[in-house]
Amino acid sequence: MTTILIAPRPLDALDLPPDLDGRHGMNRANGRQQIAAADDLSAIRAWLARVVDTKTTFDNYRKEAERLLLWSIVQLGKPLSSLTHEDLLAYRIFLGDPQPRSRWMSDGGRKFPRHDPRWRPFYGPLAVSSQRQAMVILNALFSWLVEAGYLAGNPLSLSRQRSRRQAPRITRYLERDLWQEVKVYIDGLPRDSDREQERYWRARWLFTLLYLGGLRISEVGGNTMGKFFCRRDNEGNERWWLEVLGKGDKERLVPASAEMMVELARYRRARGLAPLPSAHEDTPLVLPLGKSTKPLTRAALHSIIKSIFAGAADKLRLRGEDYAARATHLERASAHWLRHSAGSHMADGNLDLRLVRDNLGHASISTTSIYLHSDDDTRHRETEEKHRLDW
């Protein structure tokens, strides 16, 4: 006959009857063990002994192992080494609402000493994040007991485990000091002849657009100046935006900060155009040199950008051997590096990551130029204040 315990007690005060101690658990391994434990309580103590020198880890591990062991013997009347996959699924639900309350939760959520008769394993229901953390710890316990030859299998290994992907580390971007070198190089381009002036203003405008807008090169080549538009926000301030058709034909609105609009006006004046674009104007965002108004190809835009990076790298390399590695890094840069740089610098400048996401088009927008919400106004203001180029 199985012995049912009425109330849970701490691990260090627990004395299990033979039919609940796990000596004959259904999941016990038949092979050679790597630990001397003969019962579940001894096996748990062997697992905890590994982290006894780290108090926080030890306390967390003991808490979760203790809760599961007590639930198994008190609630189910079976040893821990007989738990099945289905039992563990039921335990996960139990963590969200340990019932009966009087048995599992301390009165008023107070934390009583472990030797106090009023001690209980829980102070209240566990939040979803705490439930997940508990199951992670228990999965580690079961995996270790299997590896130690104590259990035949891990009942939690059948659960859907979300693989942890290491976030890719962005390396193709320019740190602020290298970005400064690029700006200095552009600002030092010759401007003696009309053609040199055209080349200078085009390079300055193109790098402004790619950096402040965080645009892909395809979003530059396939867009027109007529996609800039102005609306007043809720406080009556004029806000300029650039409508972009991005990857996967997803539309987004890019904040056109005051700094961007100043640079646009400078570029347009250098090309003999009115400072601000008119609605539906079909002038390409970036023009070829000379009188042509045809949009530049993607290859042409790439060539302009690569030549700027190469020139800045050559200038950096002239300072000596100490700058060679950084010059080589700069020489590898491309248009997409500017997009990564924009995202990195926005994040470094404490711009809300949700705003960075929307600026870069990592999520599609459901509004049009006519329906600007207050969230959009906040994104514009924050971007303008915290993401600057500062020529």
What does this structure look like?
The chain is mostly helical and 391 residues long. The chain has 2 domains: 11-147, no CATH class; 176-386, Intergrase catalytic core (hpI Integrase, Chain A). The protein is built from 14 helices and 3 strands. It has a 3-stranded antiparallel β-sheet. Strand 1 and strand 2 (238-245) form a beta hairpin. The model is unreliable at 1-6, 163-169 and 364-374 (pLDDT under 50).
The whole-angstrom Rg is 32 Å
Q: Helical amount among residues, as a percent range?
A: 40-55%
Q: What structural class is derived from the secondary structure elements?
A: mainly alpha
The number of helical segments is: 14
CATH superfamily of the largest domain: Intergrase catalytic core
Mean pLDDT comes to: 85
N- to C-terminal distance: 84 Å
What's the CATH topology label of the largest domain? Answer: hpI Integrase, Chain A
User: What is the class of the largest domain in the CATH system?
Assistant: Mainly Alpha
- Principal-axes geometry comes out as elongated
Question: What's this, in brief?
Answer:
This protein folds into two domains: 11-147, no CATH class; 176-386, Intergrase catalytic core (hpI Integrase, Chain A). Helices cover 46% and strands 5% of the residues. It has 14 helices and three strands.
